[in-house]
Amino acid sequence: MVKVRQEKKKSKFKNRCKKLFVSTLAVSLVVPAIAVGANDDDDREDLGYVPPTDGSEVEFISTFDRLNFVETGDTVLGIANEDNIITSDGYYFKDLNGNGELDPYEDWRLPVEERVENLVSQMTLKQKAGLMNINTHRINLDLEDGEYVVEDDQLIVDRGMRYTIFRTTESANVVAQYTNQLQEVAEKQPLGIPVVVTSNPRNHPSINYTDVVDEPGQHSFWPGQLGMAATRNVDAVREFAEIAAQEWRAMGIRKIYGYTADLATDPLWSRIEETFGEDPQLSADMMTALVKGFQGEELGPDSIAKTVKHFPGGGAREDGLDPHFPEGKRNPYPTPGSLMDYHIIPFQAVIDAGVSSLMPYYSFPSNDLSADQGLPWHSEDQQFEEVGFTFNSAFINDLLREEMGFKGYINSDTGAVTSRAFGLEDLPAVERFARAINAGTDLISGNSDPQPIIDTVDQGLVSEDRIDEAVSRLLTEMYTLGLFENPYVDPEKALEVVDRPESQEKADVLHRESVVLMKNEDNVLPLRNKQINDIVLYVEMFTTADNDEEITAGLMDLIEEYDGAITLTDNLDEATHAFVWVQPVQEMWENNVVITVGEGTGIDDVDRIVEIQQTVPTITTISMTNPWLLEKIEENAAAVIATFGVKTEALWDVVRGEFNPTGTLPFTIPASMEAIENGAGDIPGYLEDESYAYKNSADDQYWFGFGLSYENYEQLLLTELQEQTEDYIASGDISGPVVNQLTNQLKQSQHHLDKGSKEQATHFVNNYLSHLQRDANSRHITTEAKESLTKVASGIIEKW
User: Is 264 strand, coil or helix?
Assistant: First the structure.
């Protein structure tokens, strides 16, 4: 037996269990600071939300050394109980059912299909029913000696669940140890079926789910989904997914609830920040990149399985209302063919990319609110059966499987069969479960009790063959992920993987690319180095929190630390310019459909924003989680910037001209509530009439795809170098023969830039840099001048 024995590791890493909105900038500057009118956590949990763990320090004590790893053939077996390792034909295997024999389902040499068939044949109905449930599983930080899961865990042991949802935010080593301990408990049970730990996205700012923050020991930190859409950088999004997959894999989280393929066609909807905007093809391209990045070209041992949501598209809403609530249960399609022409396109793309599973939405298609969608009618007088998509066989079995070619499994949304069984509310629970399963739902979310599924079979409502079909689909994913061979991970390696600097460097590039410049009167931006000594910048944050002064002070500290050249003030009377950051919130859990920036979205003092704008030229930055109605805060702004979960440093690089903004709007910003009311709501905003999009004071309309860049950016950079060089010559910091050497190179660079040859212009900036750094010239250039000009010239070469 060749044992891969991991060295025992003792970690003094302190895990800080973070609250949602800590008093640092880590969260509050990228995510609106508090939810307006949020329900109690207990109420929100019923909607699929679990609050983050309270903030106490927990010393990490590793339990990794009790696991065993065995090399055999071309695989590595991971097992807690080494007594359950058996041999056959010179190879090692895990005796998962403890019968002392090699069963086909334990034989890693056999095809997955054969192994699944054998395992299903050994499972009891209760075990099958338990496998068909998925629900939240909590880490227990109150145990001692590094234990986070009790040995007799109810969900794993008593209820037989093997799909769990991990919703809280812990450090990577803690998460890895937690998932290991879940697997240890599962390994001890009859048949030894492993656990698939699932999570919502964890690499972005979020106010509704895992509340991820940008701190060490977490994940690499990327812009939100809308920010990714704003970059249009599909290749970078795939690279993000590949990096994130490595991080998740290292922690033992093997399935992601995401991403959202819904289109942002109704600007009132509260979940727009989870989408990639309003354009079907852009969403399809982004979703394809994410599937290929997380899963790979094919699902395998290094993959993170994806559950894309919410089929057949959740963006077509009735007055923006979300179907987490009864008043939002209907999907309207008032435009003929809009369902297939727009909303289905991203789902077809992920099916073609090989997505492992799909999640239908709670809602049902409305007959009264829909035009003909070109699908077979449910009956002579009804286009659709008005039951939630989880129960809708015409959509799951006929459209999705038969027409669109989907081969994976269906994962219901949380509570779709229990608390939000729209259209079937009056049916007994067992009949609702039967309707969902017979309609094609394989995994039921928000339910932990296997009994309702057992009852569907015992009462003759569902055949056991159909149960076997669902279980086989789920086990196929488990086997393909390699979990039966080795579900265990190294907690210390998890920390190393999530803290790789190169990953965050790539994320930071995408952060910069996500920033959208929407207005720039009189070229107030960028704040150039040449003028920075004459600028006194007033800074103020406008959030939904009750501590905006503290948040503003934190922002000022961060800016001053990042940019030592800028002079800031908290006194508007002293200012020459102002920077305000407005972060409204449309609270999903309140089904809030208000998108006017004001009290309804948590910004209580819009008049103060206007006062600042009317006093000094003001850079107004808006956190665009939704297509806010901007009239009140745009008209008097000198510059307007849209952000989508951006890091403050990336935003500041745009403000200071270190990065030329390239982002474009991922959705159309409506002109008014009247425009929204007159719009269709089920088609992209750019297809609405000419009056639909907001027109700013510079006569630019904010259609999908709008975004400004700095005019003559290349010239701006070269001018900066020219002016700084002249200043250092005038001050005597540069003297002697190097003066002519540097100025000649700058003249040549300017000449070629004027002719449109950026390549040749760059060549002469390189020559400038060589002269600057030549040892023979060192006595003619002060250290300060050399360092400053080297930074500027190197920046030009990088940006050009």
Answer: coil
